[in-house]
Every structure is written in C-alpha cells, then in structure tokens.
Amino acid sequence: MQARPLDWTALTLVVIGAINWGLIGFFKFDLVATLFGGMDSLVSRIVYALVGLAGLYCITLYAKIGNTQSTN
Distance between CA atoms of 27 and 21, rounded to whole angstroms? Predict the structure, then answer.
C-alpha cells in the first residue's frame, strides 16, 4: 500500500485525537481545550472537527489494507 500525504495527515490527526481522548479518560484533562482556549473556542472546535473528519477518512484505510492483503 502506497501511503499518500493525506493518509499520513489523517492518521496523525487520529493519533492526536486518540491521545486527547486517553488523557480525558484517564486524567479528566482535555489537552486540545487547554492549548487552544477551552472547548468552545473557535480553534478548538476546528481541531475537533478536523480530528473527526480524519477519523471518517481513515475508514477508507480498511479497504486499502484489504486490497493490499488480497493481492499478496
């Protein structure tokens, strides 16, 4: 599977989201909100939205992985 820049960007955003959710779950600490001025700030909402879109995009990686395994 040849990864495109969009794949890497989406995966990076998903990892950021996963780390943030882990911090929220374990320590009740929202890193994105802390860095960007609270959950209601425009920048935080943009980051949350980008992470959500990246997660939806990463669903397509399942198909790419499946295609790679079936051709080997």
Answer: 10
Q: Which residues contact 9 (CB under 8 A, 6 or more apart)?
A: 54
CB atoms inside a 10 Å sphere around CB 61: 15
pTM equals 0.83
Domain ranges of the chain: 5-71
| Angle formed by the axes of helices 42-71 and 5-27, nearest 10° | 120
Mean pLDDT over residues 3-23, rounded?
94
Map the chain to HEC letters.
CCCCHHHHHHHHHHHHHHHHHHHHHHHCCCHHHHHHCCCCCHHHHHHHHHHHHHHHHHHHHHHHHHHHHHHC
